[in-house]
């Protein structure tokens, strides 16, 4: 059981606070407990006409395994409280993971823990974040960035993507997919997928490509290549390759490989099928192919993954 703590600051945005609290909610199906804290316990004025009454102060971070800093209003006006900055540094030093949603990246950047690393925030504040913290490599194009012990995400909806990403890494595909179904959320969006930054862009084929991706997921055991995907989407191969990457963060064949690896993960977690059977089922042919691609994507072997995540009930 891991302990998640969500830190509420003055002007905290309701969705940003609620997303990690609800994704990691304390329930039998989740290996997490969740607490919400402030720098001080008591009433905290939030954004959008809401306030929060929290029972815990900053000492809640002392035993947290995963800490979320939700977005808050006007992060460019005042630095975060010094007590929070010190507590986040101390938590990170003892091994806790720190995750910021939207403008929570400002509080995380103030610790210095993002220096030299990639990070993102809501597109409206990305230039301000880059100017205020020049040592941080701000990327406004993506939904979230995983730098291992420090993670950042863009606007509120991408906070769901970040939370599900963390669940996949820590608890496995089955737990993440169960949480996605409970939230009625897309089970997988790449962190490299573009933010919806207002700009002049050609008409997208998002809905058509969504249908093509769903079609491909039902045919992972079959040969899938760019000509076949383009034919289903009714676009040219060049258009598919260019716009598919804009919408998912991956080339079509990178996405197919990720989908096959994710399906293999589910089968390793939930069945006792042999690796050879799984590799055939997900369209990778041989166990050798599965092992090679599994290690390239996840840095481990199918057998080791199964030992970690296999569910006996």
UniProtKB/TrEMBL annotation:
The keyword DNA-binding applies. SUPFAM superfamilies: Class I glutamine amidotransferase-like, Homeodomain-like. Keywords: DNA-binding, Transcription, Transcription regulation. InterPro entries: Class_I_gatase-like, DJ-1/PfpI, Homeodomain-like_sf, HTH_AraC, HTH_AraC-typ_CS, INH-QAR. The keyword DNA-binding applies. Residues 210-308 form the HTH araC/xylS-type domain. This is Helix-turn-helix domain-containing protein.
């Amino acid at each position: 059981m891991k302990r998640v703590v969500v830190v509420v600051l003055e002007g905290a945005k309701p969705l940003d606070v609620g997303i990690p609290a609800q994704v990691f909610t304390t329930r039998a199906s989740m290996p997490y407990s969740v607490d919400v804290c402030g720098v001080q316990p008591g009433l905290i004025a939030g954004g959008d006409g809401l306030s929060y009454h929290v029972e815990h102060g900053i000492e809640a971070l002392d035993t947290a395994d995963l800490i979320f800093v939700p977005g808050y209003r006007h992060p460019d006006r005042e630095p975060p409280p010094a007590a929070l900055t010190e507590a986040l540094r101390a938590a990170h030093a003892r091994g806790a993971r720190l995750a910021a949603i939207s403008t929570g990246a400002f509080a995380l950047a103030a610790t210095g823990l993002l220096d030299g690393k990639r990070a993102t925030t809501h597109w409206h504040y990305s230039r301000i974040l880059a100017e205020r913290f020049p040592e941080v490599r701000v990327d406004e194009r993506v939904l979230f960035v995983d730098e291992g012990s420090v993670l950042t995400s863009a606007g509120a909806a991408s906070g769901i993507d970040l939370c599900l990403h963390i669940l996949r890494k820590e608890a496995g595909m089955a737990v993440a997919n169960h949480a996605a179904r409970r939230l009625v959320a897309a089970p997988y969006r790449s962190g490299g997928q573009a933010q919806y930054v207002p700009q002049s862009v050609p008409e997208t084929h998002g809905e058509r490509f969504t249908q093509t991706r769903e079609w491909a997921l039902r045919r992972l055991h079959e040969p899938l290549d760019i000509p076949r995907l383009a034919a289903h989407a009714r676009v040219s191969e060049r258009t598919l390759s260019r716009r598919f990457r804009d919408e998912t963060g991956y080339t079509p064949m990178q996405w197919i490989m990720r989908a096959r690896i994710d399906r293999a993960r589910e089968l390793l977690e939930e069945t006792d099928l042999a690796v050879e059977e799984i590799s055939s089922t997900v369209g990778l042919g041989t166990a050798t192919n599965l092992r090679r691609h599994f290690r390239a994507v996840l840095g481990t072997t199918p057998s080791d993954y199964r030992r970690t995540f296999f569910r006996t009930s």
